[in-house]
Design goal:
The chain has 15 helices and 21 strands. By secondary structure, it is α+β, with helices and mostly antiparallel strands.
Length: 724
């Protein structure tokens, strides 16, 4: 019986042979975070943020006891959020204190962030078991960090939780969009065509009788909302204000980071350069679908000797046509002549082309029980750390790190990169709001063909006719319909879709001619496409950012020993159809090779056209480099945030009044907000010797956020308070 693979730990066949004792406490807790993500809703932006925040928790819990490193949030002002802290004596056993503080910090953060997850019961049981196995008292909830490492961990978690409620993600509102609404009515993929799409250039939601997200969660009679349309408002890690621009669309304001400019648009009334680029991009997706053959007789070498090692990336439409292989799939990368670690050429791996492309589409999509792309790159980092002979040196230089130091520093850099990649990619998705191939190909087919005005169903916004790939249905065609009703329609030679699969354990859809009105991406029929806009590709952005961090933090662009691998067994690996027809091992020489393969996989999967891909790669490179540089500045005590005086607000919770202490100020302006952002109270407090009284007697009981600002409006600190 086919095994439904999960990616709790990538390359698990290797990791299964490692003793638990070889892993640091940070590693154990990172695996718990990935496990929690796999049991939650499939929300890439949310989980990039969760991975970043748990990485902060680990790093600060380690750095607070390190004599050199500088904390990131603890005792700092970060984006206007003040974390109060005064130094504590150095413990006798620093390593033990670090491990305990890390454990409590991540434990509390996981319990908070995944409390409402579909898999909350399993997640809680798993983290409780780890705490118990480590010998910690998980019932200790004190945040008095002066008492010891457990309390320090609890305090760090509380600070991150408070920061998270104010970082622009709308965590208090379950991360829902606050103003975005789609302009297109939903597409029902089970029904042919897409005649109801009002604007082909804008994102279209999908309507399902049963929707199963990438984490395997089932929803009935649902139209999934655009996830993270306003994520550009979320506070970043290494990105700076100059990286952002503000735009207005439909009367709404959007913040866009690392703006790549607009994609190609389709003019439905005339033929022009942008329209031709648009048509080429989406035609390529349908053509590549025709390469997903379960019985492909074309054999290719998928070793690093033949694939990978791209030297440059296209920047114009003409260059795109030279970069991607339209009819054979993939790109024209030259491969690597030798393995630089062994000095020998890479051995050939000859496999059926259709098997390779199908495996790519599933592997990089993360499959059911998804850890999402950010979690995938954490798993790759863990795989790298476990390789025999790999030396844990930051940036590949200096002394060997302990496993704990390596993990917390590497996670911190990678977490920051994944977080900034999410903010950037989704800020672009939210503003440009572009459509997915399943919407576009079906809608263009409704228009007709754009190649010959003398033929039936000519329309300037139709699909281009490409003999052997995109054609018109003729009178003698098996697709003509019982009464010839489909004559003149567009047909595509592509993957035939889920209607040709009765039993995924035994069947494969194969490829062939189908009505373009019935085109499907290479995905499960209960998923079809992610619930957010296409441009730019999140996978491309995450993966290139991750590749840059791994290349930099290890000091080597190559995987340990010159190659990373993942084994996909015959007739067991693919989930929604049978395959592959033989054993396949994915192989990459460099981290960038792996990222580039991930980018191509989304085109094979029918999720993105090339114009979504390349900007993600280029922007991801910038993000990864910046995140690594910024993260490493903290390792030697030169981090970018300012150390602050400890401000106090107590008692909290309170029933009437609170004392506000700001040692460096004569007065502050205090604003109190409800959890939905409404201003409840604003008051100027005169401070005597840095102390003042805030009267909350007239405020109703509940949870609030208080922000204190100085005389020129600069935020001094913010804190969550409870009035009872």
């Amino acid at each position: 019986m086919k095994k439904a693979f999960t990616f709790l730990i990538i390359f698990n066949c290797v990791l299964a042979n490692l003793a638990l004792a070889q892993r640091s406490v940070a590693r154990l807790w990172n695996e718990q975070v990935i496990h929690a993500i796999s049991n939650d809703l499939a929300r890439p932006v949310v989980h990039a943020r969760n991975l970043f925040h748990t990485s902060i928790a680990m790093y600060d819990a380690w750095a607070v006891y390190d004599p050199v490193a500088e904390t990131y949030l603890l005792g700092k002002m970060v984006h206007g959020f003040q974390s109060n802290y005064r130094a504590v004596p150095t413990p006798d056993d620093i390593l033990s204190a670090q491990e305990e503080a890390i454990s409590f910090a991540v434990y509390r953060l996981i319990l908070h962030r995944f409390a409402s997850s579909p898999g909350a019961v399993e997640i809680r049981a798993s983290v409780n078991a780890l705490m118990d196995s480590l010998g910690y008292n998980r019932f200790n909830r004190s945040t008095n960090y002066k008492c010891g490492p457990a309390e320090m961990g609890n305090y760090i978690a509380a600070q991150i939780i408070d920061y998270g409620f104010l970082d622009g993600s709308n965590e208090g509102g379950s991360y829902r969009n606050q103003f975005y609404e789609p302009i297109n009515s939903p597409l029902q993929p089970e029904l042919p065509g897409n005649i109801g799409m009002s604007d082909i250039n804008r994102w279209q939601p999908l309507m399902f009788n049963q929707f199963i997200d990438q984490s395997g969660n089932i929803f009935n009679n649902v139209v999934p909302s655009f996830l993270g349309a306003e994520w550009g408002k979320v506070l970043p890690f290494a990105m700076r204000p100059e990286d952002a621009e503000s735009f207005t669309r439909d009367g709404l304001s959007f913040t866009v980071y690392n703006n790549p400019g607009p994609p190609a648009w389709l003019d439905t009334s005339s033929i022009g350069n942008s329209s031709e680029a648009f048509k080429w991009n989406f035609s390529l997706v349908s053509i590549w679908g025709g390469l997903l053959k379960s019985t492909d007789t074309v054999i290719i070498d998928i070793s690093p000797g033949s694939i990978g090692n791209n030297i440059s990336y296209p920047e114009t439409f003409e260059a795109y046509q030279d970069f991607y292989n339209l009819f054979e799939g993939g790109d024209y990368s030259q491969g690597h002549s030798i393995n630089p670690k062994t000095g020998a050429p890479y051995s050939e791996q000859l496999v059926p082309r259709g098997d390779y492309y199908r495996v790519l589409a599933e592997f990089w999509a993360d499959g059911p029980d998804s850890e999402t792309p950010p979690g995938h790159w954490f798993s790759i980092l863990n795989y790298v750390s476990d390789q025999p002979g790999f030396e844990k040196r930051i940036l590949g230089e200096g002394p060997l790190c302990t496993p704990l130091e390596w993990d917390v520093k590497a996670y911190f850099a990678l977490g920051g990169a994944m977080h900034d990649a999410a903010i950037t990619a989704w800020s672009i998705k939210g503003y440009y709001d572009t459509s997915r191939p399943v919407s576009v190909i079906r809608r263009m087919a409704e228009f007709g063909q754009c190649s010959d005005p003398a033929l039936l169903n000519y329309h300037p916004a139709g699909l281009p006719l490409i003999p052997g790939y995109i054609e018109q249905i003729k009178a003698d065609d098996p697709l003509r319909g019982v009464s010839g009703q489909y004559i003149g329609e567009i047909k595509i030679n592509t993957w035939r879709g889920p209607n040709f699969i009765d039993d995924p354990e035994e069947d494969a859809a194969g490829t062939g001619w189908i009505r373009a009105a019935n085109w499907w991406p290479y995905q499960r029929p209960t998923f079809v496409s992610p619930p957010f806009a296409g441009y730019i590709s999140g996978h491309s952005t995450f993966s290139r950012a991750g590749a840059e961090v791994l290349s930099g933090i290890t000091g080597d662009p190559y995987f340990p020993n010159g190659m990373g691998t993942f084994f996909c067994p015959k007739n067991q690996y693919l989930v929604f159809e049978e395959g592959p027809s033989q054993d396949i091992t994915l192989q990459w020489a460099t981290y960038v090779d792996a990222a580039d393969q991930c980018s191509l996989s989304r085109i094979f999967g029918g999720i993105h056209p090339p114009m979504d891909d390349i900007p993600g790669r280029l922007i991801g490179k910038k993000i990864g480099e910046a995140a690594l540089e910024y993260a490493t500045s903290y390792f030697t005590g030169g981090g970018g945030q300012d150390t602050i005086y400890e401000n106090k607000l107590f008692p909290n919770p309170t029933d009437c009044v609170m004392q506000v202490e700001v040692p460096t100020k004569e007065y502050v302006v205090v604003a109190l907000y409800s959890t939905d952002g409404r201003l409840i109270l604003s008051k100027r407090l005169v401070l005597k010797e840095g102390k003042g009284i805030l009267d909350l007697t007239a405020v109703a009981s509940g949870l609030y956020f208080m922000v204190a600002r100085d005389e020129v409006g600069h935020e001094l600190f913010s804190e969550r308070i409870i009035k009872y």
